[in-house]
Amino acid sequence: MATPRTRGAARAAAALAAGVLAVSLTACGGDDDGGDEDKSGGTGGTGTTVTLPRLDGESLEVAAVWTGTEQANFKKVLAEFEKRTGAKVTFVPAQDPIINFLGSKIAGGAPPDVAMLPQPGAIKQAVERNWAKPLGAGAQAELAKNYSPGWQDIGKVDGKQYGVYYKAANKSLIWYNTQVFENAGAAEPKTWDELLTTARTVYDSGVTPFSVGGADGWTLTDWFENVYLSQAGPEKYDQLAKHEIKWTDPSVKEALTTLAEIWGKKDYVAGGASGALQTEFPASVTQTFTGGDQPKAGMVYEGDFVQVNIGETKAKVGTDAKVFPFPAVGDAPPVVSGGDAAVILRDSEAAQALATFLASPDAARVQAKLGGYLSPNKSVPDSAYPNEVQREMAKALIDAGDDFRFDMSDQAPQAFGGTPGKGEWKALQDFLKNPEDVAGTQAKLEADAAAAYGN
C-alpha cells in the first residue's frame, strides 16, 4: 500500500511531468521574454528585498567546481554582491571531489571563505571535520522566508543549519533534436517501453538514438537513479541512499538490467561504449544539437542545466531542442533533484552576508535571467526566467514542494558517490563498458559502498 509520502511523490512526479510535457509542445525560442515583466522591483529584474551591510575593504573567496558559462553567470551574482556591499569577491575554481580540494586548501592554511558544495554528503563531511560554520540569524531568516522545509533540511546536519541551497536541478529530463524526431516520425515517450520504441524509430531513420557523457561518472549515476526511483519506488530509493539495503539487492539488479536495454544495445549510444566513456558532459549535449538533422545522436539525458550547453550551439530551446520527462519505468515517472549549497568555512560578517544574499531572491534573480539555472527559492518570480521552458520548470519545482528525491549519489559519502575513477562513478562506467555483468557490478558497488559508509 502506498504511504502518504509515496503518494505525494507520485503527485509531484505527475505535476512535474505534466508541466514539462506541456512546455515541450508549446515553448518558444530561448530568447523569448514572454512579454512577462518581472515586477519584483529594481532594474533588470534584480530587485532588492534583503538589506546587506557595507563591507568596504573586506575581501572574500568563493570556491565552486563550476566552469564555462555556469561559472561566468555565477560571477555576475558575485558582482551584484560586490556592488551592494563594497566587498571584493574572488571566485576560486575547484576540482572534483571538492572535499579533497578544500582539504588541501585548509591544510595549507588558506581555505576559501565560502564553498558551493554539490552534495549533502559533502556538507556532512565538512561539519564532521570541523570545517563548516553554522549559518547566522540573517541567512536563517531568509531561508525560513523563502525556502520550503525540505530544502532547508537538506542543508542541515544534526539539526543545525549549515547550507543554503542556492541552485537546484531537475534531473529527470530527456532532451531531443526536433529535426531528428520529425524526420523519423518519432513521438515523445511517456513510459520506458515507449522510450525503447522511440529509440528504435530514431535508429531506423539513420541517427544514433542517445548521446551519453560517460567520461563524467555523475551522468551515469543520474541515469541509474531515475530508473531505480521509478522502478523500485521512493521507499527503496531512500533505503539504498542510506545504505540500509545492499547494492546486491534484487531491486538494483532489476534497475541495472533495465539500463542495459539501452546501454547494451548495439549502436544505440553515440560512439559506442568506448566513445561515450571519452565524451564529457558538455560534448554529449553539443553533439546532439549540431549537424542539423544528422547529429551524432538524437537524444541526450540530463537536467534542466542542459540549456546552458545547448546555448553554445546554434540550436534554440523550444524549437530546435525540446524536452520530455524521464519516462516512467514503474508506476510513476521519477523526479530526481540536485543542487549546490553555499557553506561558510571562514566565519565573518562578510561571509555571513554573502550566505544571506544567496538565500534571498535577489541573488537568484540575477542568475535566473541568464538561463540554465533553477532556484528552489519560492520567492523568485517565474517572470525572472528568460523563456517559457525555464518558467514552467521553475514553477513545477516550486509547486512540488517537498515531494522530491534528492540525487542519491550526492547523498552518499564522496568516496562512493562523488569521486572520479572511484566508487559508484567507476562501477557504472565499467558497467557501460560491459552491461552484461550485472552481478559483478552489484558486487563492486556493494564493496565500495560498505567501505565508504563504514558498514
Automatic annotation (TrEMBL):
Signal peptide region: 1-29
Keywords assigned by UniProt, alphabetized: Signal, Transport
Lineage: Bacteria, Bacillati, Actinomycetota, Actinomycetes, Kitasatosporales
Residue intervals passing through the bilayer: none
Chain intervals for the UniProt region annotation (Disordered): 29-52
Protein name: Alpha-glucoside transport system substrate-binding protein
UniProt family annotation: Belongs to the bacterial solute-binding protein 1 family.
Entry keyword Transport: yes
Domain of life where this protein originates: Bacteria
